[in-house]
Amino acid sequence: MASHTSRTMIAALQVSLDGFTQGPNGEKDWVDSWADAIELIPDVDAFVLGGHMYPDYGEYWKSIYANPERIEPFQERIPSKREIAYARLAARTPHIVLSTTLKSVSWPTAQIIRDVAELRTLKGQPGKNMYVVGGATLVASLLNEGLIDELRLIVHPIVLGKGQALFGGVNKRLSLDLVQAKSTESGRVILTYRT
User: Fold this and answer.
1) Out of 91, 127, 150, 193, which could bridge 176 as a Cys pair, Cβ 3.0 to 4.6 Å?
2) How is the chain split among helix, strand and coil, in percent rounded to 5?
C-alpha cells in the first residue's frame, strides 16, 4: 500500500449506550475484550495513548505478551487468541504516549511526547493509520485540536448512569458524518464516523 501524504488518525473506543467509557469508580467490567477495537482499524503503524492510560495498558499487554497462557490480573480467564494477537502486534508497533508528567515508558517501542504540536508533526509524516487507543481525556483533546479523522465506537447495550463521559472534555460543537453502522450478535453496535 502506498504511503499517504498525511496519516489518518483513528480513535476506536468501547462506550456504554449512555456515552461513558467507564463507570463512576472506573468500572470497566462490562467490556469483554480490549482487543476488539484494533480489529476495526487496518494498516496501523502507530498507537497513540494518553499518559494516564499508558501505565496500566503497558503492564496488561506486556504481561499477556510474556505469558499468554496465564490468567491476567483482573481477569478470570486466560487471554483469547485475539488478545494474544493484539499483544504481539502491540509489542512490535511504535507507541506514542502523550504526557507532560510521565518520566519513562517500559516498552522498547514506546516514546513519550510532551505536546500536541509534536503529535501533529508525526501525523503529517507519511505512513499508515495511527490508532488512538485512548483514554477519553486524550480523545477529547485530540478532537478539540482537529487531529482525529475517524471515530469508531463499539457501543455496548448497557446504561451506566454516570462515569467518565466519552465527550466530556470536548469544548466545541462537532458535526460528524456517519460512514457505517453495524450491529453484532452480542447486541453491540459498531459506529464509524468521519470528523
Assistant:
1) 193
2) 25, 30, 50
